[in-house]
DNA sequence: CGAGGCCTTGACAATAGTCAATAATGGTGG
DNA sequence: CCACCATTATTGACTATTGTCAAGGCCTCG
């Protein structure tokens, strides 16, 4: 763990995160009780069941929000990208795990102080509402995707989504990118087993839709095949 | 369709809906541009793809939020209970269908006017944020449930959830209740087929967990069996 | 009373899961 | 820098669960 004061001036998500809705003085106020923190891959930011006393904005990297059964199998409920907000403002206990997928940076806040800021600054409340609505849409879209599709379709759609997330230009998938998730994590996200994910990736390579570049690298050859 | 002015004074959800955060004058302001509307079972409130110019609070009854594939199979993404809010404030087009499951009553608002009220009344923004956060939690819980459980467990958990929703006392499932969903809707919600749902309900009856009372009626005999 | 829509049940097929062995990768320490 | 080890991924054989197709029953509403 590492922690230091905020540096909003150089923040890469300063125009997109919830705090972008604040003006200079308000943002400075919020910055006073936030801490910057670095996370290593696999490091847990929040753990289900623990006291829910913090929240955070993701600045760089990627997080997962997940739930684990009694038997230890993990179900990934959401991926968090930069500018995303994590933490449940109204629950006494954290109900899901939040874990870094890659080296990541967050702005960490005390939940109590953040909630006070939400009361004080209506623009912050509205910005969070907007973000929460988008997360809700994302959760429902994922549910619609996982619900009624074959393993092949899920893996294909996931690869396409990751290619789009990896690209700088919106709506144009990157031709080549590295998966930020292990097979186990892909399986947890898509509601499949590791073996099935592996087989489907192999099948997609055999059918010429993609090429693998090492374990995590993916090269799109025929993106259209991923969509069906 | 039926439509008439609001009657907040006698509204059964006036203490729990988003508008409960407003004081008398503010609520009266909101009420001026809301309309009361009755929905019959199966009636569509909002349709995916159409202009997203309205939003609503559910007063009585039950709604479903769903998405339909190209081939027409429906995936239910959420059930909406009284005091729930439906509508996406920040999207230009509606992205999901919202349909009444039972005879229902909603307060219907123009999205533009509702958004203006959210700007004007910070308490409304915070109340919607709270509700949106809860919906997000609900969506993720459903995803966690559907993700890694057998057909039997899904149906059992669903029946238990419905029994709890049907009960007045919280955390005590009703011993007897009517399902507000058809088999097709249950299948769409749980990510199964109609046949599988039917078989699992039959199996739960054979194993003594429940008894069926007509097509939609369920009597809990051994609720513990539903949880495993 | 008849018709149509749900629901149930059965037989079979297909998809994904389980168990198990092997291969590849990446990190660590000599 | 290389070798070894632990972790992760791939592949195969087999099983089990669920989906598909089809037929028949039940209830509800005209």
TrEMBL record, chains A, B:
Residues 149-224 form the HTH crp-type domain. It comes from Sphingomonas astaxanthinifaciens DSM 22298. The keyword Cytoplasm does not apply. Pfam families: cNMP_binding, HTH_Crp_2. Residues 18-89 form the Cyclic nucleotide-binding domain. SMART domains: cNMP, HTH_CRP. PANTHER family: CRP FAMILY TRANSCRIPTIONAL REGULATORY PROTEIN, LISTERIOLYSIN REGULATORY PROTEIN. Coiled coil: none annotated. InterPro entries: cNMP-bd_dom (IPR000595), cNMP-bd_dom_sf (IPR018490), Env_Response_Regulators (IPR050397), HTH_CRP (IPR012318), RmlC-like_jellyroll (IPR014710), Tscrpt_reg_HTH_Crp-type_CS (IPR018335), WH-like_DNA-bd_sf (IPR036388), WH_DNA-bd_sf (IPR036390). This is Transcriptional activator protein FnrL. Keywords: DNA-binding, Transcription, Transcription regulation.
